[in-house]
């Protein structure tokens, strides 16, 4: 079992920045990939960014150059710095962790609202 707790969402004006963090607890040594998905109203959940235990990263095209994902394996956290935010970044952001056996776990989500 893995528990993921997000923090850092909020309200920001377009062009601003926010930093999301996610703390993992439980069977943390079983976690391979961690990352963030988001779901905007009326849209499907989409991958935003992911990082493996070895540090390889993957980003959605829409956030490349603006978002940076990082991971601290000693603190069992994953963070995402979001810069140059746009109204279309408004969504609920979910932290996820994928275990080496393929199972995945999700946080409850944190809301990000970007005003124009």
Give structural attributes.
mainly beta; 58% strand; 116 residues; globular; seven-stranded mixed beta sheet; four-stranded antiparallel beta sheet
How would you describe what is shown here?
It is a single chain. The chain has 116 residues and is mostly beta strands. The protein contains no helices and eleven strands. Strands 2, 4, 5, 6, 9, 10 and 11 form a seven-stranded mixed β-sheet that branches. Strand 9 (91-99) and strand 10 (104-106) form a beta hairpin. It is globular and about 40 Å long. 32% of the residues are buried. The mean pLDDT is 95.
Task: Give a quick precis of the structure.
This protein has no helices and 11 strands. It is mainly β. Strands 2, 4, 5, 6, 9, 10 and 11 form a 7-stranded mixed beta sheet that branches.
Write the layout of secondary structure elements.
Elements: E1 2-7, E2 10-13, E3 18-26, E4 31-39, E5 46-51, E6 57-59, E7 67-72, E8 77-82, E9 91-99, E10 104-106, E11 110-115
Parallel strand pairs: 2-11
Antiparallel strand pairs: 1-3, 3-8, 4-5, 4-9, 5-6, 7-8, 9-10, 9-11
Shape: globular
The topology string of helices and strands comes to EEEEEEEEEEE
Return the average pLDDT rounded to an integer.
95
User: Which parts are unreliable, with pLDDT below 50 for 5 consecutive residues or more?
Assistant: none
C-alpha-based Rg, rounded:
13 Å
Structural class by secondary-structure content: mainly beta
Largest sheet: 7 strands, mixed
* Helical content class: under 10%
Kindly estimate the percentage of residues that lie in beta strands according to DSSP: over 45%
Number of strands: 11
State the end-to-end CA separation.
40 Å
Number of helices: 0
